[in-house]
Specification:
Layout lengths: L2 H16 L6 E3 L7 E2 L6 E9 L11 H18 L3 E11 L5 H17 L3 E9 L4 E9 L15 E5 L4 H15 L5 H11 L5 H9 L5 E5 L3 H12 L1 E6 L7 H10 L11 E6 L4 H10 L4 E9 L4 E4 L5 E2 L17
Parallel strand pairs: 4-5, 9-12
Antiparallel strand pairs: 1-2, 3-6, 4-6, 7-10, 7-11, 8-10, 9-11, 12-13
Helix pairs in contact: 2-3, 2-6, 4-5, 4-8, 5-8
The protein binds adenosine-5'-diphosphate and magnesium ion.
The site of adenosine-5'-diphosphate (ADP) has 14 residues, from helix 1, strand 4 and strand 5.
């Protein structure tokens, strides 16, 4: 049914009916504000805004995948503080030509991920807009001290979870496939999934915080070098990254050569980048097994005056210009 027929309140009623009653939710969707039980002494609160045309393109993104991604990018921010997500608010600006089935598909993707991590949808706001606009706010808590971007010291190791560059290469393929509809092989399918359905590294983040192993942490949303730059500035350190150590997936290795992609600056992997004391290497290996995610040591923190240096496989320093995503500078668009 067209939203113009269903109306705002019909749509909200549909959303209310389909939303499961969340744990610890005293008042959920349907009143002027939600009321929930606090799970920790203090809360972690994060928000992200996704705008059609600058963060996603509906020509190659399904609404179900978009629902997943809108929540995943916020959960990733909670993971990067070492936190546990509890509640979520979802606000939408929706073009009038949308069908209620489109919004159903979006909520399905959103709710599947919410259920996986026991996050309760407790409210939102709905408006008509020229383009699809998605605003998500997640409230969580941390069972330990949250891990900030500041806190790394020269001499610490630098690690990253999972693999790098997949999502950016997936996006490149999407753009190219649209132009000449190439047949998709398995590596391409894997990379597209990494672009459309990122995995928030919540278990790894929470365990790093609980065991006090991470001295500084961030999620890689805008590219490794850009996000490493944020840790370096906040912690007043420099960094040396060994290019040969960067974790690359088999799918990336199969297709990156032809596409000329770059695991150092490609965005949207939503992996965790963190620093840790050298003496904790064995503990981090153990944590990687427990959290069921690869954790790779990719470099070390150095004094701030050395800046960020990338060593090529022969050990030679490659001059680096930090290149990643900046919405106002328009270094690249993510669609
Ligand atoms: P208000 O006039 O106070 O903004 P609304 O009529 O917009 O109230 O919202 C009614 C209820 O529906 C509230 O509990 C609100 O949190 C919830 N809600 C509105 N839009 C959404 C949405 N897109 N997703 C989830 N809950 C929503
Ligand atoms: Mg409202």
């Amino acid at each position: 049914m067209k939203l113009s027929r269903l109306g705002e309140f019909g749509l909200i009623e549909n959303i209310r009916c389909r939303t499961p009653a969340g744990r610890d939710v005293r008042i959920g969707i349907g009143d002027d504000a939600a009321s929930v039980k606090n799970r920790g002494d203090s809360s972690l609160i994060t928000a992200d805004l996704l705008i059609e045309g600058s963060h996603f393109d509906l020509r190659w993104t399904s609404l179900r995948d978009l629902g997943h991604k809108a929540l995943a990018v916020n959960l990733s921010d909670i993971a990067a503080m070492g936190g546990i997500p509890d509640y979520v608010i979802l606000s939408l600006g929706i073009p009038a030509h949308f069908d209620s089935e489109d919004i159903d598909a979006f909520y399905r993707g959103f709710e599947e991920l919410a259920a996986e991590y026991s996050v309760a949808l407790v409210g939102g706001d709905t408006n008509a807009a020229e383009k699809l606009i998605i605003s998500v706010c997640v409230i969580g808590h941390s069972s330990a001290k949250p891990v900030e971007r500041r806190g790394a010291k020269a001499g610490d190791d630098i690690y990253v979870t999972g693999t790098l560059g997949d999502a950016a290469l997936g996006l490149k393929l999407l753009r190219r496939v649209r132009r000449n509809s190439t047949r998709k092989g398995q590596p391409a399918v894997t990379l597209l999934a990494r672009h459309h359905r990122p995995t928030p590294r919540l278990a790894a983040g929470a365990q790093l915080a609980k065991k006090k192993l991470a001295t500084a942490m961030i999620d890689v949303s805008d590219g490794l070098l850009q996000d490493l730059g944020h840790i370096c500035r906040a912690s007043a350190i420099g960094a040396i990254i060994e290019a040969a150590r960067l974790p690359l997936s088999p799918a990336y290795r199969a297709l990156a050569g032809k596409e000329g992609c770059d695991a150092l600056s490609g965005g949207e992997d939503y992996e965790l980048l963190f620093c840790a004391r050298r003496q904790n290497r064995t503990q981090i290996e153990k944590l990687s097994i427990r959290a069921q995610v690869a954790i790779t040591r990719i470099g070390a923190c150095v004094p701030a005056d050395r800046g960020i240096v990338v060593l090529d496989p022969s050990g030679k320093a490659v001059p680096m210009r930090i290149q990643g995503h900046d919405h106002f500078k328009k270094a690249r668009s993510s669609v």
